[in-house]
Amino acid sequence: MLGGRMYRPVRALAQAAAAGRTARLFTTARRLAAADKFYVTQPIFYVNSVPHIGHFYTIVLADAIKRYADLQGKATKLSAGTDEHGLKIQQAADKAGEEPLAFCTRFSDRFRALMGAANASNTDFIRTSEPRHREAVARFWRELVDRGHIYKGEHSGWYAVSDEAFYTEGQVEERVDPATGERKRFAIESGQPVEWVSEVNYKFRLSAFRDRLIAWIEESHDAIYPEIRRNEVLAWLRDGLEDLSVSRPRSRLRWGIPVPGDDQHTVYVWVDALINYATVDGYPWSDGGGATQRFFPPDVQVVGKDIVRFHAVYWPALLMAAGLPLPKRILAHAHWTMGAQKMSKSKGNVADPFDAIAQYGVDPIRYFILRNGGIADDGDYSPAEVLVRYKKDLVGQLANLAARCLSASLGADLGAFAAIGRQQRQDQRAVAPGDEHVRRVLLELPQRVGACFDKCELGRGMALVFDALADANRYMTDEQPWVLAKSADGKAQARLQVVLFYTLETVRLAAIMLQPAMPGKAAQLLDHLAVRRAERQWQHACFGAGWQSSPLPQPLPGAAQLFPKL
Predict the structure, then answer these.
(1) How far lies 316's CA from each of 211, 324, 506, in Å?
(2) For a pLDDT cut of 70, what percent of the chain falls above it?
(3) Cβ(300)–Cβ(65) under 8 Å?
(4) Rounded to an integer, what distance in angstroms lies between the CA atom of residue 454 and that of residue 125?
(5) What pTM value is reported for the model?
(6) Which superfamily does 392-562 belong to?
């Protein structure tokens, strides 16, 4: 189903050659090979503060999506990095008494460290202060100019320094500033204070792309996910679009990329930042066949819901203007609260991801953040809930089941499981009444979990996995293999191996499917089950399809110690 895709180009070449279609042979191979590539992007994080649990969620969600594609046999790319330009950074660096680059490096290093601590498998980490990115932005800008999409004019509007964005009159409201008690204007969308700014700068003809953007979203239902974010973007577009200010006077913003051909202006930080997704794939691409090797456009772009406008309106419009393909899906996940309140340093309710990793271990906290994190609705971070997931799911359902079934007193014969699996899968007559429910669950599980993972709903998919583990634990209690193990009767011993097959088959399937969330612990669990590394792809998460290697190595003892007592 999934793993077989990697062989399609070879089959296509053979078929094309046999039919004499030599002129189309390599075109077919390139097209099919491109389908086996999968490009995931994280938003590049703004370096005005240290990482928090929301950054960690974005990192782990993007990494798990990429790892799922790895399990399908695809060639993958995962980009990450830091966004380092803009007025907010300039002001923060001045306040700290540092040069902007040194200030950015200090914070960028913390985000890079978090990627490592989170065991993220990113293939690139870009800083927008790098020369390769400056070259890409300059080329992209010139492309827009050459195509007639940028012009110079006067721009006035409400500007939020924190958002690095202009807002229209309808996008701001007047209310009391809780810090000063004065009435001020704030951006409705972000809640940040705004000030009136009027200046001459360069503008992008964003309004010209309104109808094309609406058509793109309506024709590709998965372009923006979840549905609530898709509907928000469509509402914005139907309200109308104004042209976008895409530069700032150099006199006001010196920390950024100069506008090509006009060093009195600086490229707007969000235009600069968005282009990173092309930079990391080698843009500007050469003409010498490079198009067959790049990953662009992204298959999934993971962003927080607070930056949907930039990624679902500005970014695709810029790509349309430059004649480049659009992302296939923009996944805009929800945020994290603590105690049902927005996290805030002043309230003392901010979760530090480095502390969480140190306390619970990287894989358990990855599991919690994916299982409890929201796509449409905000997740609530609670140390008590982390412990519940740890003890109930990871220890109680997963590790204990594996440890009990691998106990020497039960004597699981893994070498017999391949034959038992074939029989239980193919011959309905061999299925005992007590096995029917768990068999049906395991037959359906890969497809059901895969459907969730395909939508990037990792939490829902893992919930199905742990439901299956709960079923297997109840099955084991009902079938009492420890009683069967004490019998010398041949039928009892044969029944014992069938029961152990079902329980350990559940563990095997679960471990394979949990690899995107818990790559380290899942690999250790598969080691305990003596599953060879070549048999851990998604195609092997199929009921009765495992345990094929012969001879099998011995299972490892100590599965219960996978998740030590906290």
Answers:
(1) 12, 9, 43
(2) 91
(3) yes
(4) 25
(5) 0.88
(6) Isoleucyl-tRNA Synthetase; Domain 1 (1.10.730.10)
